[in-house]
Specification:
Largest sheet: 3 strands, antiparallel
Number of helices: 7
Distance between the termini: 54 Å
Oligomer: single chain
Strand order of the largest sheet: 1-3-2
Shape: elongated
Helix content: 40-55%
Structural class: mainly alpha
Strand content: 5-15%
Length: 139
């Protein structure tokens, strides 16, 4: 039989012993933090940009509007796949469309999208990204 000295008090798992190093800065960051829904919506946009085919469409649109068939030719995608990707990008207000009769011309929705794509491409062009899964290196 165990004595009361052998029984240890339960450890509180939900408690955090981390202290704040800079509480004023933490408060300032929390004050400017977007709403949870805005963070989710922003992550969705980055998810859209994370697909190489959709990103190719957006890079093609940096030079101005193009129709679906021209975008398909530039990206090497079928017209159906191109239309599907453009519908998804349009639903998230990344691209917009202008109709001329039966033709649909797509363009980047606004300057924010242009800046985001420009910055992402510029970042990649000036860095030597390490891709161990591609070149066999392990770090």
């Amino acid at each position: 039989m165990k004595s009361s000295a052998d029984v240890q008090s339960p450890v509180a798992i939900d408690e955090c012993n981390i202290r704040l190093v800079d509480p004023e800065r933490v408060a300032a960051v929390n004050a400017r933090m977007p709403s949870e829904q805005d963070v989710v919506d922003t992550a969705d946009v980055f998810g859209l940009l994370g697909d190489p085919r959709r990103l190719k469409l957006l890079v093609a649109l940096l030079d101005g509007e193009l129709c679906v068939c021209d975008l398909a030719a530039v990206t090497g995608m079928s017209e159906s796949a191109t239309s599907h990707a453009l519908r998804l990008l349009r639903a998230h207000r990344v691209v917009s469309v202008r109709r001329d009769g039966r033709m649909a011309f797509y363009r980047l929705d606004d300057a924010h999208v242009r800046m985001l794509v420009d910055l992402a491409v510029a970042h990649t062009e000036h860095t030597d990204a390490m891709h161990p899964e591609r070149d066999g290196r392990n770090s």
